[in-house]
Design goal:
homodimer; alpha/beta; 272 residues; four-stranded parallel beta sheet
């Protein structure tokens, strides 16, 4: 059975979407058609939403699930006329929080909750620039400014992980690809030795690595299973020899890898 | 008054953190010290958390707010012994959802909710690679494969926005910097003309642009207010002349800019 789920917000929809996704993930036997609808910030847009919801109810033969974080009461009232099962996230939690904090929320006084520009902006852009400038061993003379340096074979997931940590947490993460040369020398490149406490290793299953490398350079030696298997094995040996903590990225999402690295290294996020 | 808030999870903590952040943002008069604690997945770790929570309660002189998404009942029971005000996100919503969906959740049967590796992984990595390979006008012959092409002056926020859209939504976004030459020619570069329907403009306040460029090239003509003001004015004229939808990034977060672009262009996310 297919069922439609809407994540509806007067802002970006990120909160409704994140919470909705993880709640729906608990129902493994049901297939959801998930639709995010941000910036529903007027009665007119809400009326158009009601039509969409009711249409989905008709097509599916069952009412859609609605996760919403809309501040304006009038807009919520319009949505409530739809044939959907509403999970009103803010209403549920803000009332107990107001009691506990003995304070009125912007929500209950009808103010919007835009995050907008804040002090985090520059910090985050700086972190993204740091990740880009220090990607793939491009330069190593700013490693003193790095919070972390990811190491691993080419295409094991270092770049997306560094970018995610920069974007989400404001962490300055460089990354350095370990090459065959480094493996044959049986030691860390000298640029990294000084910063051993900042190093974190990523590894990956050879078949996955072969698949990823083949996307880039089909049928090359670089992408062959034998080469991938060799590199991964040697790098894991190097990690163990040098006592570098590492994780295998194969079965984790970028979010999971990033969260695990921060816990392991005890690095606190810079964005608040 | 300062008050501590914990976002506690047996997974990445992203759901607890996202929801907690947006709920706390509704209380503008209170300063929160926010701490995310992912991978609290054993009774031992939960006991250590209880100590941290109780210590914060003592220091603050008021009990901390706890947002949690922990699946295991035993671990939640340990946390509940702390001197914190618990907002148990899953417990609150899963019971009504189970009723509506007439289905048991993994939560209620005690299974963990790891997202893990899924079909999204390659899609996302591809999108990040696309953003990196097609960053800053580096190449233009893959624009047929782009979902979107962001245009604007140098350092107006194109790269972080493209990377965010890639990471979060799997959108393939290229970006192209408009230079003085393009402005003086009073027209779009020929590489872009063919793809006018994919273009979206970013603009920025000249003082913010000056500040950002000064970080990169201090005291250069490039970073001068006069130059920034000129470029922004000319690019906005170009956008209007060519009928390119654009937004001013100055007062929005990367999340907000990205969500607005998707709505404006009617592009659906590729990650589900």
């Amino acid at each position: 059975m297919k069922r439609t789920a809407f994540f509806i917000s007067d802002g970006t929809g990120i909160t409704a979407e994140t919470l909705g996704q993880s709640l729906l993930a608990q129902f493994e036997t049901i297939t959801f058609n998930k639709l995010t609808r941000p910036y529903i910030d007027s009665v007119e847009k809400a009326r158009a939403m009601v039509q969409q919801i009711d249409r989905a109810a008709e097509v599916d033969g069952v009412r859609p699930i609605i996760f919403d974080t809309i501040v304006n009461q009038e807009i919520r009232d319009v949505l409530a006329t739809s044939n959907g099962f509403m999970i009103d996230i803010f209403s549920t939690f803000l009332s107990p929080l107001e009691q506990e904090l003995t304070s009125h929320s912007s929500y209950s006084v009808g103010k919007s909750h835009s995050i907008g520009h804040n002090s985090n902006y520059m910090e985050r852009i700086e972190a993204v620039n740091f990740a880009l400038d220090n990607d793939d061993g491009a330069r190593t003379h700013y490693y003193d400014k790095a919070d972390l340096i990811l190491v691993g074979v080419s295409r094991c997931g270092k770049t997306p992980t560094c970018l995610y940590m920069a974007m989400q947490y404001g962490i300055r993460a460089a990354n350095y690809p370990l090459t065959e040369e480094d493996m044959e020398r049986l030691q860390l490149p000298s640029a990294l030795k000084k910063y051993k406490d900042k190093l974190f290793g990523l590894t990956i299953d050879p078949d996955r690595l072969t698949a990823i490398r083949n996307e880039r350079k089909p049928n090359s030696r670089y992408a062959s299973y034998a080469q991938c298997e060799f590199e991964v094995r040697e790098v894991e040996n190097l990690f163990r020899r040098e006592n570098i903590t590492y994780i295998n990225s194969t079965h984790f999402s970028v979010e999971e890898i990033s969260a695990k690295i921060l816990v392991e290294k005890g690095v606190e996020r810079r964005l608040k």
